[in-house]
Amino acid sequence: MKHQPPFILVWLVQALSSNRDAEIILGDLHEMYEERCEQKGRALASIGYVTDIITMLANGAFRKDRKRYSPNNPLIMLNNYLKTGVRQLNRQRLHNAINIGGLAIGMMVTFVIGLFINQELSFDKFHEKGDRTYLLTMTWTMGSTPLPVAAATSAAGPFAKEVFPQVESMARIRSESLILTHNGSVIEERKVYWADSTFFDVFTFPLVVGNPKHALFEPMSIVLTEKTAARYFGLNWKDDILSQSIVGQDNKNYRVTGVVKDPPINSHLQFDLLLSMSSIQAEREGNFDNSSYLTYLVLHPASHPEDMVARMPGLLKARGATSISNAPENFGTWLVESMNFDLVPMFDTHLRNQVYIGVPGASDIIYVYVFSAIAMMVLLIAVINYMNLSTARSLERSKEVGVRKTMGAFRIQLFGQFLGESMVVSFIALILATLLTIVALPLFTRVTGKILDVDIIHHPEWLLYVALLWIVVSILGGAYPAIILSSYKPALVLKGSMKNSVAGLSLRRALVITQFAASILLIISTTMIREQLRFMSTADVGFDKEKLLSFQLDSVSRLSVDVLRKEFAATPGVEEVSATMFTPVNVTMRSAFWIDGVKDRQILGMLATDTGFVSTAGLKLIAGDNFSPNVERDSNWEFLVNESAVKFFNWTNETAPGKTLKAWGSQGVVKGVVKDFHFAPLHTAIQPFIISAGRHPRSQFNYLVVRAGTNDYPTLISNLENKWKELTPASIYSFSFVDQRYQDLYETEVRLSDIMDVFSALAILIACLGLFGLASYTIVQRTKEFGIRKVLGATVLKLMLNVSGNLIALIAISFLIALPASWYIAERWLTNFHYHIGFDWWAALLAGAFAILIGAATVAWHSLEAARVNPVKSLRTE
Amino acid sequence: MKGTNLGEFEEVVLLSVAILREKAYGMAIKVEIRRRLGRNPSIGALHASFNRLEEKGFLESRESDVAPERGGRRRRYYKITRSGANALQKARSIRDDMWKSIGDLSFGFGK
What is the CB neighbour count within 10 angstroms for residue A682? Predict the structure, then answer.
C-alpha cells in the first residue's frame, strides 16, 4: 500500500474491463506497479503500467460484460432507432439528398439574412451612452413645404447645451472633404469629420494613442483612424505618431493628436480622419442659418426630449434673433420663426429615420422586414419538401410501425422516433448550411456592399439561435409526418389492407401550392423591381444625361475654373462647357426666395450656374429667353424657373418672364421657363425649381459639366485629363459620366433587385427539388398502372400528361393565388416612386408561365422514362 | 467450443498453475514462468491466456479474500479442471510418442 498508481490509469482500466474482471486485473497491475516502484521508481512504474494496459489491449485481454437485456433500457431502443434511421438514410438516397439539400439551402439563406438583420439591428449599440444620445434635427418651415434636415445649424447645439440642464454633453460633426499631401502626392480625403472636442465624450470610439479629452481641442488637431495612420505613416506608426503632422492645402499643418480605432461596420458614423472643430473659423460665429452640423446630445437619464424640443423655439425667440444670426435685415427673426427642432434617438438613426434628409449611412427598416420575409419563405419551402416527401413515403414505413406497435411500442415512442429522424436529417443540413454560408458570405457582400461581421467568438448566443433554428425546422418538418406515421393501426397495416398512402394527400397538394405560390410571388416581385429599374434607367429625365461628363472641382481647381472652362470648350469633341453647383442629376440645394406680392417666402430647389447651363445640359426652354451673356458680370441675378414653379406661383408661361425674385444674397428677374426635368430621383415628384446665373462666387461651383459632341469618349476624356493636369496640377482630377451618376441614384434598388434574383432562384430551385422527389415517387408507385394503361393502348404523351397534369394544375392554382398577392405587394412598393410603372400583368403572366414550365420540365423527365418502359417489364415488377 | 489443442504458451500456463497448486493466481503464475523459463510474459498475454483457457474449460477459478498488497483487491486463483489435466496429459503423450519414434538423440546429424 505504499504506492498508488495514477488515478487516471486505474480509471482507464476500470472503464476498459468488464465488471467481473476489473478487480482482478487491477490487482495484478497494482502488484506489478509496486514491484516496479521498488526497483525503478514511480515514473518508470507508471510507464510500465501504461505498457501493461497496452499489452492487455493488444492481446485482447479485456473481456466485455455479458449483455444483460433489460426491458426498461431506453438506450437499447434508442440504438435500434438510430440503426433504422441510418438504414433509412442510406436506402433512400435521392429522397434524402433532396431533403437535406433543400433544407441546407434554406438554412443558408436564413443564416445569411440572419447575419444581415443582426448587423442592421446592432447599429450604434456599441456606444456606451448610446441609449441617451439623440440627434438634434431641424425642420425648416418656410412657405408651404417643410424641409426636415438631419443636420442642425452650428449654433443650435451649443444653445441647447446652454439652456437645458438635462444635456450632459454635446458634440457636433460636420462632414467635409480635406485635401492632404503625402509623399509629394495630393490626396483628397473624403471621409473626414470636423468634430467638437467633446466627440469622444459623446461617442465610444476608443483612442489607441492620445488623450480623448484634449485630442480635438486645439485648432489644427487631427485624429487618424488606425487604418489611416498606417496609410500615412506605415505599419510602425505607433513609434512616434504624436510628433507627426500632415500638410494640407495652402501649406496648412495638421498636428496628429491621436489615433482612434477604426469605426466598426455597424456604426452610422464612418470616418477616416477627425479634425478639431476649432479649426473652422466660421463655427465660432455661431450661425443659425446654415444646417450642416450633425448635432448629438447626450441627455441625463430620465430627461424628456419631447419637452425640450417643444421649448426650444420659444427660448430662441427670447434670446433675440439678431444675436444668433448674421443674416441680413430682419431675416434673423424670420429664421427663428421658421425653425422647429426634434431629438431623434441615435439608435433610430440607421433604420427608422425616414424623415430627415442627410443622415449618414441611413438604411430602412423595411429592408429588414423584406429580407426576413424572404428568408422565412425560402425556409418554409424547404421544410415543406421534408413534410411532403416524408408523408408521401409513409407507406413504406407502415410495416415497421405495425411491427413496432405489435411489439408494444407506445405511440409517443414512435412519434419520438420519427421526430428524431427529422432532427438527424436537419442536423446534417445544418452542417452543410454552415459550409454553404461560409462560401456565400463573400458573394453576399459583393452583391449588397454590406460587409457582414461574423464574430462568433464574441457572440456565442448565435450558437443558441442556430440550435433554435435546428429544433424549429426539425419540428416543423418532422412533426406532421411523425403524427401520421405513428397513427397507423397495426392490424390494418400488417394485413396489407393499406395499399396507398392517401394520408395527407390533400395536405400535400396544399403544401405544394404554398411552395409554388411563394416562389411565384418572389419571381413576380423580382420582375417588377427589374421593370421599374429599367423604367428609371431609361426614363426621359429632361436633360441629355448620356452626353454629359462631369468634373468635380476642389478648392484648388476652383481657382482655375474660368480658364478650365475656356480650355475645355476649345477641346475638339466638346460642344459646350458649363460651371455649376451640381450636376443636373441630383440637386440637393434648397434656398429661400421671396416673390413680389405673390406668396410668402418659399424654400425652393435652386441651382447656381453660369450662362451656358441650359444648352449644355440640354434643357428645353419653353418660354422667354435664356440668360443674358453678360449677366455674370452684373450685380443682379437672372433666373430661369421650371414649369412646376410657374404653376406653384400661379403664373403662366407668358407672364412668368419679367417677374422679380429675391433670393438669399441678391435679387433678379425671371428670364424664362424651362420644361420640367428630373433634378431629383424619380422617387419624388418634380418640385418647383429655380436656376440662377449671376455674379456667383467661384466657390459655389462644384462641377464642370461637359457636353460631348463626339462618340469617341476615350480620346475626349484623355484630352481633357491632360488639359486638367496641365492647368491645375495641384488639384484632384475626378471625372464621371453623368449617366453613371444618374444610375448610382438607384443603387439601393439595384442591390435589392440583385438579392431578390438570387433568392427567388433559390426558392424555385428548392420547390422544384421537392416536386422532382414527389414525382419520382408517385411514378414508381404507379409503374404497374402505366404498364396496364400501355397495354390497353395509351400513348407515351398521354401517360406523361396523366402524371404531370396533376402537378402542373397545382402550380397553376398557386399562380392564381400568388398573382393578387404580388400585385398588392408590387403596388405598395411602386408607390415609393412618384414616377413608376403600372403592375405589368403580362410580365406577371410570363413569370407564372415560367414557373409552370419549370415545374413541367422537372416532372417531364421522370414521367417520360416511366411512360417509355416496355409494359412487359413494368408488369413483371413484384 | 474452441478446439482442445493446447498452444505452447497455454501449455506453459497450465503447467505453472499445476505446479503452484493452491497459490496459482496471476502474478504468482507470471513469476513462476519467469523463474522456470527465464522469459517474462506480459500481463496482457497472461490474462488473455487465462480467459481463453477458462473458455475452453481447462481452468476454473475462484476469488479470494481481499489482499492488502494488491491495494485491497481480491485475487483470482486458478485450478486445472479434469479436462485441463486430460489436455496436458494428451499433449505430453503425443510428445512422448514422437520422442520415441526418433529412437536415439542423434537426429541424423554428424554422420
Answer: 21
- Sequence length of chain B is 111
> ipTM value of the model?
0.85
Helix axes A93-121, A461-486, angle to 10 degrees: 140
Min Cα–Cα distance to chain A from B93, Å? 30
Buried b (16+ CB within 10 A) or exposed e, A503-528: bbeeebbebbbbbbbbbbbbbbbbbb
Query: Does the distance separating the beta carbons of A34 and B47 come in below 8 Å?
Result: no
Partner-chain contact A23 B26, CB within 8 Å: no
Q: Are A500 and A782 in contact (CB under 8 A)?
A: no
Residue A586: Cβ-neighbour burial (10 angstroms; 0-12, 13-18, 19+): middle
Chains A & B: contacts with CB separation below 8 Å: 70
Dihedral, A11, A15, A20, A25 alpha carbons, nearest 10: -50
Put simply, whether the predicted model's pTM sits higher than 0.95 gets the answer: no
Quick check: helix, strand or coil at residue A407? coil
Residue A751 CA to residue A757 CA, distance in Å, equals 10
C-alpha cell at A702: 462644384
Residues 41-60 of A with CB under 8 A from B: 52-60
Average pLDDT over residues A263-271: 89
Mind telling me how many Å the CA of B81 is from chain A's nearest CA?
20
Closest chain B residue by Cα to residue A57: B44
Question: A443 in contact with B at a CB cutoff of 8 Å?
Answer: no
Helix B43-56 to helix B26-37 angle (10° resolution) is: 110
Residues A123-148: tens digit of each pLDDT: 888 999 999 999 998 887 766 667 78
Pick the closest to residue A563 from A579, A583, A549 (CA basis).
A579
Q: How confident is the model over A774-790, as pLDDT tens digits? A: 888 777 777 788 888 88
Contact A27 B71 (CB under 8 A): yes
- Alpha carbons A302 and B80: distance in angstroms, whole number: 92
Q: Which residues pair with B12 in a beta bridge?
A: none
CA dihedral A614, A616, A619, A622 (to 10 degrees): 50
Look at residues A282, A711, A774 and name the one whose alpha carbon lies nearest to residue A512. A774
Q: Which residue has better confidence, B100 or A664?
A: B100
Distance, C-alpha A634 to centroid of its chain: 50
**Chain B residues closer than 8 Å to A32 by CB:** 27, 43
Please give the backbone phi and psi of residue A223, each rounded to the nearest 5 degrees, phi first: -120, 130
Nine-digit cell at A775? 414525382
| Helices A365-392 and A461-486, packing angle to 10 deg | 30
Q: Which positions in chain B have a beta carbon within 8 angstroms of at least one beta carbon in chain A?
A: 26-27, 30, 42-48, 51, 63, 67-76
Helices and strands counted in chain A (H then E): 27, 23
